[in-house]
Amino acid sequence: MVLEASRQIRERCKDLILTDEVIAELMRRIARDVEKGLGKDTHKEAVIKCFITYVQDLPNGTERGEFLALDLGGTNFRVLLIHLGQNHFDMQSKIYAIPQSIMIGSGEQLFDHIAECLANFMKEHDVYSHKLPLGFTFSFPLQQLGLTKGLLETWTKGFKCSGVVGNDVVQLLKDAIKRRGDIQIQVCAILNDTTGTLMSCAWKNHNCRIGLIVGTGCNVCYVEKTENCELFDGDVNAKPDCIVNTEWGAFGSDGSLDIVITEYDREIDENSINAGKQLFEKMISGMYMGELVRLALVRFTKDKLLFGGQGSDFLFKRGNFFTKFVSEIESDKRGSFINCREVLGELGLAHATEQDCANVRYICECVSRRAAHLVSAGIAVLINKMKEPSLTVGVDGSVYRFHPHFHDLMVEKIKQLILPGIKFDLMLSEDGSGRGAALVAAVACREN
């Protein structure tokens, strides 16, 4: 009976395993959608938007000076003070919370709160009277019209601030700073966390051409030939390259992912605040991975294939299976279930058998492996498109950073999917959204 339950679980988890044929088809669809995003005539209906960032220069090591960075990408934001010297930098930073009331309040409230925290930070670090350049990492879908102008396309990650969608977030920040009238900040650049990751890695490794985030959300940017960026507003011949922010988390909202969507994905989507959107991200990122596992556990428990059919109030409550649990369970040595038992104990499932633990681990592996393979398929599309003989992918985000096998799963799968003869490596970004923001500001200042 026990072995039959395990066999049934494995059979039903096949939905979560991507075959080579399915991956090849997904790669074709991603490649098609990237081209649509880059094209002037197709951009409007494109699902992968491929926004032009107007960041055209990578760091070359000559950047010097004192810079602020503001990193807004979730329920907290960070302010950083960065000193760039010859091949070294030092950094001080502070994290500020964004209360729930502000996340769903007005845009003016949000930017006034940020400006107040900026002023407090500058006082604390004795730069209150300095005029400082600032790089602004804004990790939400943004249509950039220049290095310092970006219109918010849509809020994600639980934000719903009114009066921001469709408006220039740099201007909203400048207005809030001006309303205070007590600090001098020059916003030199707005970027998203993928661009920051790329820039941060490129400072150390000049071969870096892709910036990937696999954390709360999932997104990627890459270096494209400016001549291929049909929406580029300016002289396309002035500089050969431009970083493109794909916003690929939206992939699938037109049905392109229907060949791999499972009942668990559908349930996650239906219960999200942005149903029908960001479907690719919902199959990959840390905001949803734990919940995907929980939904599978609930389904198999109700079908009496797990825990003797005995669940718990904890297990049946949405959001209670954290993504960090997936990493912890998969960190157990093979055949050992120390972390798994601890997690199940926290969820009121101390009655789990050894076989239950093995099955829980298997479900976690199916969900996280699928996420790694989806990301790898997308990265392989970009590597094949760029045709560089050798390149580095800068990666950041909690899933990539903390999941024990994500890096290896990606390396193995990308190798299978890229054109012969291309070399690549994955480089963990050190604080891309902070250091990267300062570097974009520094490179912009280097121009002036």
Automatic annotation (TrEMBL):
<dbReference type="GO" id="GO:0005829">
    <property type="term" value="C:cytosol"/>
</dbReference>
<dbReference type="GO" id="GO:0006096">
    <property type="term" value="P:glycolytic process"/>
</dbReference>
<keyword id="KW-0324">Glycolysis</keyword>
<dbReference type="Pfam" id="PF03727">
    <property type="entry name" value="Hexokinase_2"/>
</dbReference>
<keyword id="KW-0808">Transferase</keyword>
<keyword id="KW-0418">Kinase</keyword>
<dbReference type="GO" id="GO:0005536">
    <property type="term" value="F:D-glucose binding"/>
</dbReference>
<dbReference type="InterPro" id="IPR022673">
    <property type="entry name" value="Hexokinase_C"/>
</dbReference>
<dbReference type="GO" id="GO:0006006">
    <property type="term" value="P:glucose metabolic process"/>
</dbReference>
<comment type="similarity">
    <text>Belongs to the hexokinase family.</text>
</comment>
<protein>
    <recommendedName>
        <fullName>Phosphotransferase</fullName>
        <ecNumber>2.7.1.-</ecNumber>
    </recommendedName>
</protein>
<dbReference type="GO" id="GO:0005739">
    <property type="term" value="C:mitochondrion"/>
</dbReference>
<feature type="domain" description="Hexokinase C-terminal">
    <location>
        <begin position="209"/>
        <end position="443"/>
    </location>
</feature>
<dbReference type="InterPro" id="IPR043129">
    <property type="entry name" value="ATPase_NBD"/>
</dbReference>
<dbReference type="InterPro" id="IPR022672">
    <property type="entry name" value="Hexokinase_N"/>
</dbReference>
<keyword id="KW-0067">ATP-binding</keyword>
<dbReference type="GO" id="GO:0005524">
    <property type="term" value="F:ATP binding"/>
</dbReference>
<dbReference type="GO" id="GO:0008865">
    <property type="term" value="F:fructokinase activity"/>
</dbReference>
<keyword id="KW-0547">Nucleotide-binding</keyword>
<comment type="pathway">
    <text>Carbohydrate metabolism; hexose metabolism.</text>
</comment>
<dbReference type="Pfam" id="PF00349">
    <property type="entry name" value="Hexokinase_1"/>
</dbReference>
<feature type="domain" description="Hexokinase N-terminal">
    <location>
        <begin position="9"/>
        <end position="203"/>
    </location>
</feature>
<dbReference type="GO" id="GO:0001678">
    <property type="term" value="P:intracellular glucose homeostasis"/>
</dbReference>
<comment type="function">
    <text>Catalyzes the phosphorylation of various hexoses to hexose 6-phosphate.</text>
</comment>
<comment type="pathway">
    <text>Carbohydrate degradation; glycolysis; D-glyceraldehyde 3-phosphate and glycerone phosphate from D-glucose: step 1/4.</text>
</comment>
<dbReference type="GO" id="GO:0004340">
    <property type="term" value="F:glucokinase activity"/>
</dbReference>
<dbReference type="InterPro" id="IPR001312">
    <property type="entry name" value="Hexokinase"/>
</dbReference>
<dbReference type="InterPro" id="IPR019807">
    <property type="entry name" value="Hexokinase_BS"/>
</dbReference>
